[in-house]
């Protein structure tokens, strides 16, 4: 074939990002559109709109390419089983139950592989980003929640039903705040973007964070994670203190995972990377303090993701190029 | 060769158990002796006594065998690196820093492989016990602490430096009781044998557990996990209530691990298996309640270990037979 092009599409709660990956792994084209199927309570049958959206992204990419598209990879938020069915998708309610792989490949006439979005981002960073060459790596994506992906012994860890890497709902404080998942004290209640907002609102209600509250329009209840980041970037001491507390929760979960998996490289990505960048040193210090037997282990590298918002789409394309989820081994 | 015999030795804090595994995986001989190198504060150089103990076990086993010994596997409590050096051993202070593999193989003239004890037990149960045939399995050993071992995608997860599976020091309550490791609220502060004792002493001081306190000689401070188990086996309602609380902590950590790894089979073993047996149903119920998206996943099997105290030694022999720690893939 003249040019072996694979498409990768990352489905988020608010936007869909698609790109075309050329034979040497370079991005040839990119398309972005809003996600239309995010209304809570939407019946799974309505998920057909997600298929429409995905097909539209593929057609737009195809129109800008000269070569043949040999495969499509899709990263979706939630539990995606080994057959490419989205089983559980709290952040994409209309998509739950949808056989994305089956429906999209029937529509497009090309093979479609579907995978968890954070796992795709992990594959992207592992094969082309911050974790290249690491046989034991972990990626966490910090956004509204926390996603994750695991590489162990040079292979992507899939788990029995393809659901491995759901790190955000690890309970780190059973008496902690309630989580939409039904439990209390899940890690993402503390160390995600919404966790940062919650920690900040608590501080604001306690009379701190004047500058942050001002940024939020004057109401402590309106404080969000991004207000803290903005104030901290301007060296606001109180905002930096809240970020440091948030960073300790981040380090706690990372040290739990590193203990269980003995990870050499941890890649931190997602929309909150700007916030992490402000406290990276203290996160690394807290992590080392919390890791059992740290003095007897080589140092774990905790590094920022480098592919940005494209990580998931690049990873999805790489999964498709490798011929499926179970083929992801170190090359 | 006439008979390919491999030896497996499990080093515990109080005893050493060795056995000889015949070509078909059957145990041909067994030796048990007390561990002499367990005095806290002993200098690593004193660890030579551990090598003496291990060599004595090997000689006793050899004396009872007709065939040639082709390899020796040793399971040791602590962080054992990929070269077989015991890096960190809070429960075997005299052994820390010891190059067990190098020293023992020089002494014996046969290849020696050293591995973490809980990982050896995992290998034993995976290859000859409760998790045979499972490509994604987890074992936890409940004793004074909690050990663990992970099988993912048909391979034993080793981690970057051979330390994977240290599940006991996963923090599940950062405001919880202090742990000898330096942190607070490690899982093994709650769900191990010492965790059961602690929960029971708290209940006893609060005026509960009359029967258990009597078993302990009348002093609430003397209550240990085994007193709770004994009373619960006699249907004491208060003891069963403490066991149920303990079981919820067990389920919490297991659900964290199953989320991260998407495990199909969880094997529970170790000295506390008698206690778990009394609350297995409620542990399974709590686990299902705590597992995110449980309704959308196949049921995870939580099963008792079947190899008993021999699991670690059998697994150590199997690691040696396979030719080393990195060769452990599904056969």
Identify the notable features of this structure and list them briefly:
homodimer, Nucleotidyltransferase, domain 5, 10 helices, 331 residues, 5-stranded mixed beta sheet, alpha/beta, globular
How does this structure look, described?
- Two copies of one chain form a homodimer.
- By secondary structure, chain A is of the alpha/beta class.
- Chain A folds into two domains: 4-124 and 310-327, 2-Layer Sandwich (Nucleotidyltransferase, domain 5); 132-306, Nucleotidyltransferase, domain 5 (2-Layer Sandwich).
- The first copy, chain A, has helices at residues 48-63, 100-108, 117-128, 188-191, 193-205, 210-215, 225-233, 237-261, 273-290, 311-321; strands spanning 4-11, 15-21, 27-34, 68-76, 79-80, 86-88, 112-116, 137-142, 146-152, 155-156, 265-269, 301-304.
- At the A-B interface, strand 9 and helix 8 of A face strand 9 and helix 8 of B.
Blueprint (SSEs and pairs):
The structure is a homodimer of 331-residue chains.
Chain A (H helix, E strand, L loop, with lengths): L3 E8 L3 E7 L5 E8 L13 H16 L4 E9 L2 E2 L5 E3 L11 H9 L3 E5 H12 L8 E6 L3 E7 L2 E2 L31 H4 L1 H13 L4 H6 L9 H9 L3 H25 L3 E5 L3 H18 L10 E4 L6 H11 L10
Parallel strand pairs in A: 1-4, 4-7, 8-11, 11-12
Antiparallel strand pairs in A: 1-2, 2-3, 5-6, 8-9, 9-10
Helix pairs in contact in A: 1-2, 3-10, 5-7, 5-8, 7-8, 8-9
Short description:
The structure is a homodimer. The first copy, chain A, is of the alpha/beta class and about 325 residues long.
Distance N to C terminus of chain A: 22 Å
> Helicity level of chain A, as a percent range?
25-40%
Structural class call of chain A reads alpha/beta
The CATH class of the largest domain in chain A is Alpha Beta
The major sheet of chain A is characterized as: 5 strands, mixed
Average pLDDT, all residues of chain A: 91
Strand content of chain A: 15-25%
* Rg from Cα of chain A: 20 Å
Within CATH, the superfamily of the largest domain in chain A carries the name ATPase, nucleotide binding domain
Regarding quaternary structure, what we see is: homodimer
Helices of chain A, by number, come to 10
Low-confidence stretches of chain A: 40-45
Question: What is the total tally of β strands of chain A?
Answer: 12
